[in-house]
Amino acid sequence: MLPWRYLGYVGYYVGAGLISGAVVHHPMAPTRYSLIAASGVLVFLLATVLNDIILATERQPLSRILRVLGTSTMLSFGLGMLSGGMQHFADLPERCAVLIPLGIVLSFVAFFLK
Question: What are the UniProt keywords, alphabetically (predicted)?
Fold first, then answer.
């Protein structure tokens, strides 16, 4: 059980990391960074399925599962905007000045809804 929980948490961080890089760098190569963001969302959602559905102690109804997946997607983008904006503020201050507060709001709303 422990290795699966570990892999689930690794998936959260790797997914959010891919999204954070993609969100910040997207204007430089939109196609490339859209694929990276999509990969990050997929990894984050797989981690969510593993942690919140497969390894959950109680089975949830479909409506709850869909809400968890939706809010997890929002959370992954919010965290990606926040961490990517913080990492690259010196490089892209105008873009990151928008990404950081939007990331805070989006991740907070997603966390609250989840």
Answer: Membrane, Transmembrane, Transmembrane helix
At 13, the amino acid letter reads Y
- pLDDT recorded at residue 97: 96
pTM: 0.79
Please work out, in degrees rounded to the nearest 5, the angle formed at the alpha carbon of residue 72 by the alpha carbons of 55 and 83: 120
Going from N- to C-terminal start, the domains of the chain cover 2-113
Residue 12 burial (CB < 10 Å; 0-12/13-18/19+)? buried
Q: What is the pLDDT of residues 40-65, one digit of tens each?
A: 999 988 998 998 889 988 888 888 88
Asked whether 77 and 19 are in contact (CB, 8 A), the reply is yes
